[in-house]
Task: inverse folding
């Protein structure tokens, strides 16, 4: 009598991850829309108009980090893969076009890094290598000519660093991800402003 109910509950788990991802994506979309319509600024940085795009640039990497890390605690193998896909698809669809343009690159790059590391057996898996990878990701993400989509590189190594770590370390890693992403989002345009258009006429 218990076997069918267990099977049924397991089959609905990806939908739970999908709904959670969708809710997070929708929240990022709504917050971006709200900030784009109000006058909110801090010194030279304005969060209205295009400045509101700072929300998806920071929010999606953090959402992928948090969602994938939590799912990795309770799922393994193919089940984990299904959970990660369900969460990621929900995140993208929940945010609409914002999810397609901003969340999808983060998910694809993170998935590639995650799969390569987990399946790879040619190098010794160590936190030192992951920290090096994170440092390289920060440098690449900060390159002005690559644009802010370089932040898509950041969550992969941090997710792997968080595996089997205590909660306090995971929170610290999440805070580090937010801090670095924020510095890239606000610092790079400030240090390397886009050239102004020549006057008409």
Result:
């Amino acid at each position: 009598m218990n076997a069918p109910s267990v099977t049924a509950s397991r089959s609905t788990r990806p939908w739970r991850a999908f709904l959670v991802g969708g809710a997070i994506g929708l929240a990022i979309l709504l917050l971006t829309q709200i900030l784009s319509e109000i006058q909110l600024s801090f010194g030279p940085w304005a969060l209205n108009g295009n400045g509101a795009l700072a929300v998806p640039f920071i929010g999606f990497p953090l959402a992928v980090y948090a969602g994938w890390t939590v799912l990795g605690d309770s799922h393994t193998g193919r089940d984990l893969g299904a959970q990660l896909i369900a969460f990621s698809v929900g995140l993208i669809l929940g945010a609409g076009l914002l999810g397609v343009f901003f969340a999808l690159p983060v998910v694809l790059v993170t998935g590639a890094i995650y799969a390569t590391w987990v399946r790879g057996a040619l190098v010794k898996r160590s936190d030192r290598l992951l920290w090096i990878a994170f440092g390289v990701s920060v440098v690449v993400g900060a390159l002005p000519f690559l644009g802010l989509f370089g932040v898509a590189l950041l969550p992969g190594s941090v997710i792997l660093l968080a595996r089997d770590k205590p909660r306090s370390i995971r929170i610290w890693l999440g805070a580090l991800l937010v801090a670095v992403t924020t510095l890239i989002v606000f610092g790079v345009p400030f240090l390397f402003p886009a050239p102004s258009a020549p006057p008409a006429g």
